[in-house]
Each structure stands twice: as C-alpha cells, then as structure tokens.
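re: ur question from earlier - yeah i can do the single chain one, its not a big deal. heres the input i used so u can compare w yours
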Amino acid sequence: MGAEASLSARLRFRLSRLLWPDPAPMPWTYSGDGFQTIHNADFLHDPRFRSAYSRAKAAGAWSGADIEWRAHTVCWAAQVAKALEGDFVECGVDRGGFAAAAMEYIGFDALPDRKFYLFDTYCGIPEETLADDPNRTLLGTLYGDTYDQVVRTFVTLPNAVIVRGRVPEVLPAASPEKVCYLCIDLNTAAPSAAAAEFFWDRLVSGAPIVLDDYGQTFFHGMKDALDAFARHRGVEILALPTGQGLLFKP
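and the output i got, formated as tokens:
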C-alpha cells in the first residue's frame, strides 16, 4: 500500500507539472532595507507618498539610505491616528525623517489643534544607556548633534513640539495626556520598553504603536524587552518584514 500510494503521488505531481508548468520568475516589486518581495508595492509610485518621502530625505534622514517600506508603515499609522483623538509622539527622532514623512503625508500643517511631540537627546545615545549594550561601539558613534537641523526642518510647523532630553526621564514633564500615535525608534532596550510603558495609559483606544527596528536581529535585546512589556499588558506585537513591530492600543 505504501509503495502504491507513493507511486500515485509521483504520478499526480508529474501530471500537475504538465497541466500547470512553473510560471516564469516574477521580478521583485521591492528590494532593499533587509528584504525582497514580489507582492504589490504600488504605494512606491503614489504621489502623496513620494512627496512625504522626499520631505524626509530633504531632512537628511537615514544617512542617505532608502527605507521606503518602513516610511510607508509610519505614514499609514499616522493616517490611522489622524482620525483619533489626541496628539502624536515620536521617541527617537535623530534628523526627523519619520516625523517629517508622517506630517507631510497626513497634512499636519492643516491640523492646528493637534501637536506632534518629538523626544530625543539630539546628541546621540547617552553613554550610560549603552553601558551594557552589545552594540555600544557602533551605536555610540552612529548619531551626532542634530538639534539645530531638526529645528530648521520643522520651523514652519509651530505645532511640532521638539523636546530635548533623555527618554524616559524627560517624558513626565513634557508629554500630552492623550496620545493617538506613538513611534519608538530609540535603538536601545530599556528606554524603548520604558517609553512604551509610560505612554500606555495615555494612548487612546485604537492608537497605533510603531516599533522601529523591533524585528531586526541587530537589536534582539530590544525585541525581548518590548515583548516582555507586551506580555505584561496582555497584548502581542505583530512582527513586520520591514523589521518593525506594530501594535494597537485595545
């Protein structure tokens, strides 16, 4: 019986190949920033997204690298948040690429009653934060003084609130009470989890949380810390192929 079943399976396989031969290889629709896909990526040609992405690149974001799909995730999340009550928050700004793209994409200049809070030291990751980080050598030299540049980038948006200080220490004195959008891009474990914990009760229902670098193996310690936070709160983070994590406040 086993031999007959095996023969039958082989015959079915050969017949299927005669009727439905292998299709020609499909071209990549997106290739970069750590992954490739043949799936739909028409957002890359959307004029609204292109304008938002150009705004981010003009700010000198990402050291010249192209990370369109990650920027698209941020823009999409900001659009979801636009329909909710509350203000926008980003922890870990560097040159302001994600925030600039998100603001341009949702037309933030036409939302005078909403604020976009930008928390960062604007002079790199503090040495004491990196003391036990396995990536401390690289991270310690990766970011420089960007404060003046960020001020110039958002000078035309008075409702962009630039807050200079260490996360999470700076948060209690300068954070909004209601938050509709949270992006965490701090590149280190403890501050990332602390920021998520701090804002959890301030996030309105349905608010998206974008966790940049969450799934990248280079930052596995940060993923562990954020997963522990999520378990504590009874939620689960969705890992995206971009290396980001996505979560919604229940």
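The CA atoms of residues 34 and 54 lie 21 Å apart. not sure if urs matches, ping me
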